[in-house]
Design a protein that fits this description.
By secondary structure, the protein is α+β, with helices and mostly antiparallel strands. The protein has 2 helices and 3 strands. It has a single domain (5-85), classed as Hotdog Thioesterase (Thiol Ester Dehydrase, Chain A, Roll), CATH 3.10.129.10. The chain is globular, with a radius of gyration of 15 Å.
């Protein structure tokens, strides 16, 4: 059985170069190297994008949802490669036909 790993925010900041306000994950859990990972983002009303998207009914922009998935994938790649990832950046190059089933709003995880 594969041991599932998790990564806290301090380790995330060691693994990828993103910083506030563009660091869009708070924790990565259930990492199965080479297979999958689950990213956690605690969405709060203090997020800078909510001042304009939309002030009366804040919704996380879809592009930022995709970016948070890309950051989670980057953590998975770095965790999988281990020392082989030293000094390398991971890029999410494209996505086709993205669809969102429901909006992400303040208070969501």
């Amino acid at each position: 059985m594969t041991e599932l790993l998790s990564v806290d925010i301090q380790r995330i900041m060691e693994m990828i170069p993103h910083r506030y306000p563009f660091l869009l994950i708070d924790k990565v859990i259930d990492i199965a190297p080479g297979e999958s990972a689950t990213g956690i983002k605690n969405v709060t009303m203090n997020e800078p994008q909510f001042t304009g998207h939309f002030p009366q009914q804040p919704i996380m922009p879809g592009v930022l949802i995709i970016e948070s998935m890309a950051q989670t994938a980057a953590i998975l790649v770095v965790q999988t490669l281990g020392e082989g990832a030293e000094g390398k950046l991971v890029y999410f190059m494209s996505i086709d036909s993205a669809r969102f089933r429901k909006p992400v709003t303040p208070g969501d995880v």
